[in-house]
Design brief:
Elements lengths: L1 H10 L19 H11 L7 E3 L10 E3 L1 H4 L3 H45 L9 H51 L4 H68 L5 H58 L3 H10 L14 H4 L1
Antiparallel strand pairs: 1-2
Length: 344
């Protein structure tokens, strides 16, 4: 009779999938997944019980074999492999959802951009803020021109100072080799050396002016323009989702339509909050940028004027005093040249 019961149990085997539900195993999961499924759903030898009281006996006669053979190694390895597989699947699903959201957002923004280009779509406009942004871009272009011309002046003036330095050395050499013109060559040599010294002092002031303008244009203004770019992207996204909501509102009002409208309203509200937050950031940055620009340019224009005036007036004392006033330290001659060890 025991043989009959065992044969009947064998014919009534029910397959179990990895979620614990009854059903057939997928045939395309591969041999490795099938083996894992069998190990999970099949009996575990380490958990097999020995019944001492016969069929239908009490639980007092059951002795777990795990207490005899020690901890289960096979079960732990199977569980770890399943955990790693589930974790990898979760990461893949998360990446797929991110790509899906990005693709949908890109489609909506591209559609909105094309609609605006052809005059068929509406856009959110803040006239006062747009005017300030356009003024900043125009100011940046003009300051970039000032920076370019100042760098050109620095290069030309540097070449002139180097020429004066070489000319002064030549006059000094000729004053030693031409006794009949020693005084004349000597006067000119001293004059060129003085002009060279004052020219190097003026170069220090101009370099400081160029460095400050470069920081203002390529760092401070550029940082504000990056925030403006984020604001413009947020505006485009908000208008895209707003247009999508308006289109859905004109559609049917059945259960599915109402659900889509509710979802679109939530997305639109999120984009609106982002747009308003960035608009506030742009307004604040434009205000601080204007204050910083006035402060920096007031100092730099005063420095440029005083240094140029003192140099061409031949007032060496005033030129040096101008550099002290603005805390500008000149590099000693030859400071930019590499040492003999670096030249090796």
């Amino acid at each position: 009779m025991a043989d009959g019961i065992m044969s009947k149990a064998a014919t009534m085997e029910i397959p179990i999938n990895r979620n614990g539900n009854t059903g057939t195993l997928p045939e395309d999961d591969g041999l490795e997944q099938d083996l894992q499924q069998v190990m999970v759903s099949g009996p575990n030898l380490n958990e097999t019980s020995i019944v001492s009281g016969g069929y239908g006996g009490t639980a007092e006669g059951i002795i777990p074999t795990g207490s005899i053979k020690g901890p289960s190694m096979h079960h732990s390895s199977s569980s770890s492999s399943m955990t790693a597989e589930d974790a990898g699947r979760g990461v893949a699903v998360e990446k797929l959802e991110t790509v899906k959201k990005w693709g949908l957002n890109t489609y909506k923004c591209t559609k909105q951009m094309i609609s605006e280009r052809f005059g068929r779509g509406s856009r959110t406009v803040d006239l006062e803020l747009e005017a300030q942004i356009e003024l900043l871009r125009d100011t940046k272009r003009k300051y970039e021109n000032v920076l370019r011309l100042s760098r050109a002046l620095t290069n030309h003036f540097y070449n002139m100072v180097q020429t004066q330095h070489a000319l002064g050395d030549t006059f000094a050499d000729l004053s030693q080799k031409s006794p009949e013109l020693r005084d004349e060559f000597g006067y000119n040599a001293e004059t060129q050396k003085l002009l060279c010294k004052n020219g190097e002092t003026l170069l220090g002031a101009i370099n400081f002016f160029v460095s400050s303008i470069n920081t203002l244009v390529n760092k401070t203004m550029e940082d504000t323009l990056m925030t403006i770019k984020m604001y413009e992207n947020a505006r485009l996204e908000y208008d895209a989702y707003r247009s999508d909501l308006e289109e859905l509102s004109l559609g049917p009002r059945d259960a599915a339509g109402v659900a889509r409208i509710d979802a679109a309203q939530q997305h639109c509200q999120v984009q609106k909050d982002k747009y308003e937050r960035l608009r506030s950031d742009v307004t604040i940055k434009l205000k601080f940028l204007e204050e910083n620009k006035v402060k920096v340019m007031h100092k730099q224009l005063l420095l440029f004027h005083n240094a140029i005036s003192a140099y061409f007036a031949g007032n060496q004392q005033q030129l040096e005093q101008t550099l002290k006033q603005f805390s500008i330290k000149l590099k000693p001659p030859g400071a930019d040249k590499p040492s003999w060890l670096e030249e090796q």
